[in-house]
Structures are given as C-alpha cells and as structure tokens.
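User: Hi! I'm working on a homework problem where we have to compare a predicted structure to a textbook description. Could you give me the structure for the chain below?
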Amino acid sequence: MELAGAVILLLVLCISFLFLISAWKAMGNRGNLPPGPTPLPIVGNILQVKTGDMVNSLMKLSKTYGPVFTVYLGSRRVVVLCGYEAVKEALVDQGEAFSGRGELPTFNKVTQDFGVVFSNGERWKQLRQFSLKALRNLGMGKKSLEEHIQEEAQCLVEELRKTNELPFDPTFILCHGVCKVMCSILFGNQLNGEDKEFLGLVSMIDENFQLMSSFWGQLYDIFPNIAKHLPGPHNRIFACFEKLAEFIAKRVVLNQETLDPNNPRDFVDYFLIRMEQEKQNPLCEINIKDLVITALSVFFGGTETISTTLRYGLLILLKHPDIEGKMHEEIDHVIGQNRSPAMEDRSKMPYTDAVVHELQRFSNLLPLNICHSVIRDTHFRGYTIPKGTNVFPMLTSVLRDPTQFSKPDSFNPGHFLDENGGIKKNDAFMPFSAGKRICLGEGLARMQLFLYLTTILQNFTLKCHLDPKDIDLTPKASGFGNIPHSYQLSIVPH
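Assistant: Happy to help. Predicted structure tokens:
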C-alpha cells in the first residue's frame, strides 16, 4: 500500500511538472506577438510587473520593449500600448478591432459580462446605443441638466460654509454632491440625499475605488483564481458591489411599480420602457440584469471619477496658489458674485477652462484605462494579436506623452493655451479614453467639473496648513485608479 501511494504521488508530481513545462512553452511560444519579457509558469511576468506598482512597472517595460509589447498577468496574456500614437492607432484608426472589453476580475465577478461597460458583441452595441440616447433625453449636454447641477453646486457651497473655515477632509462632501446628481439621472428626484442608506453608499463608493487601486485589488486582478481563496481587504470589494447592486435592484422595483410609459422620469424608466417594447423581439439583448449592471456601472463610475478628480483638483490648487489666484480673477471678471456659473461662461474663461483640462490630464485618474480586447485576429504594427487577447491602452502614457505635452510631469495650464491666451485643443487629451469605448458620460463629467469647480472658487479661497512646496501630488496608490493622498484644507469666503 505504501509503495502504491508513493507511485501515485510520483505520477501526480510528474504530470504536474509536465503540465507546467507545457504551459510555460505555450506562453513562451509567441508566434508573431509583440515582444516582451519571458513569463514563468502560472505566475507569468510577476517578476517584472509588480503587484501594487503595475502602472510604473508597465511604463518601465515600455522603455525596453517599445510602445507595443506583451506581458502575462498570471496566465492572462495582455498586449500593452504606450504613447499617443500607438493608442490612437488602436482605439481610433482600428477602433472596431480593438472595441472588445477585456477582463477586469474585480468587476467581472459582479458584472458577469452584463451591462453597457463590461458586455461585448451585439449586447454591448444595443446597450451603448440605447444608453447614449437615454442620457441625451435626460439632458446630458442640455440646459435642464445644467440647471440641476447648478442647484447641487449651490447645495455643496452651503455644506462647505458649515465647516466655518476649520480644516476638513473634502472627500465625503464632494462625493456626496456628485452622487446626488448621478442618482437624479438614474433614479429621478425620489431619493433623499440625507437618507442613512444613501450616505452609506457614498462612503462605499469611495472605499471601493481605493480598494481596487490598492495592492490587494491589483493582486486579485492578476491572480483571481488564487486571491479569491485568500483572506484580505480585497474581499470587501465584492461585498460593496453586491450592496450597491442590491440598492439599485430595489430602485428598479420601485420604478416598475410606478412606471408611466408616457412619462419617463429617469434612466431606469427609459430602460424599463425599452424592455417592454422589445419583449417580443428575439434579437433584443437587453434584460433586467443589464439594467442593474448598467446602472451600477454608471452610478459607481460617474460618481467616483468626477468626485476624485475634484478632490485631486483642489489639492493641486493648494499646491499652486498662483494658479488659483488667476482663476479667481477670471471668475470675478466674467461671472462676478451675483449669479451662478453657467456652461456658456466657459468660452469666455480660457484660463479656467485650461486649468480644468490640465487637472484631468495631470490627475490621470484611470492610468491603465479599462481593459480592452481585440474582437478578431488583428494585424498591428507588424505584429499579429490573436482574437480575444486583452489590451491595455495606457492612458497615463498618452496624458504624459513628452511628444504631446511640453512639461508632461508638471502641472501647467499652458498645455491648453495658445500664444494669445485662448484655449488650445490637443488630440492627446484622452482622460475619457477614445474610440468606440469612449466614456458614455463624457459630456456630463465635463459639465460637472467646470460648474462645481468654478462655483467653489466663486465663493471661497482655499487654504492649507502645509507650505505649498510640502504638498505631495504623487498618488498614494496607482492601479485601477490614481488615488490622491488624504489631506485637509480650510475654505475662506471669497
């Protein structure tokens, strides 16, 4: 019996060894893939792509292998694109081929390939077309939505006044204000912004974004089959997403009970009406699961990206009080103190507009972009990328491309100003990505960033107890997102 057990153990070890060698050879057999470091069995390029420092690791590899290279995150093959020219060529010039959504395990466990952000194929095409139309019907880019954001901006001002010039962390206040706008679009004005459940969701959104960008979030994205069995804070990510999904599912039920097909109130209503219209159409891919996951994606993505950009923006202005001063001068000259800022003011405020652009470029909120994939075997720059291969079109490499921005690592509004002080367009400005998967809410985000920031500076001057030279603008975490260091500021009535 002992001999038989030993023989079985030896056979298992031999088979495992042969499997590892076979897997290693398969990973090393690149065919006509872009170049890259040789992966190890199972762990891939873990020695070159460090968990907790993925962004910098990939940028360092681009210096060795060029703007297009291949890495293995565990057993997952990923082609990385660096620099404006390579990213534009893929997402714009070959946009259809690169239009697939790749893997993002921290999301995929919850989304399961449903919803407008994480689906593929015909489902994605139908969802994107419908979602864009619904958001436009709800006022994206129109005066009606602008007026609502103006109202919420004034509510934010009142909350800021309550700080009585004492130091405070702006994270929750900013997230709360943006979250109320997102909720009104998705669920109408039926939600109490001071409800305990809602306030808990606000905190949860920020917590999840930070967890996904942390060491543990990156560990799960590289080794999901291993990390899912490990204890650690990454498990909190899924608990938070599930609570957000439960909240949205409850809102959907409430909308179903009070739905008037002739008078849609919000995004959920438009979705429910479309589902009813298409219920006899076997080619329609849209269903209730898509509704919940689409609303979750828009709710989470819209709230966190805008509020974190604002939070990063205030920190940057604390670092550069001279820039804040010039913005105050322009706001006082164009808007004054007797009315709310409006989007029509932006064309008369090139310096402030340039600062908002530069805040987005410099904060570089989603440095890796959201993972793409190629939907067919794709020829790209002399290489062949097999169908289904994941692709990282690195937004950080575009927003800080030295061939496109004169001082890529410095905060400089001059990147978006011409020699006459007017606003200057730059095609490498891609904070919302580019091509067929460009952010659905780009127009909404631009509107909120301009109106919130100008309204805050119309009413307050920013103060910090630190010397500006001691303010650290490097992110405390750089993974799925770039997270600014926690800080406190005081605001003084302007």
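For your comparison, note the following. The chain has 18 helices and eleven strands. Confidence is low (pLDDT under 50) at residues 1-28. Good luck with the assignment!
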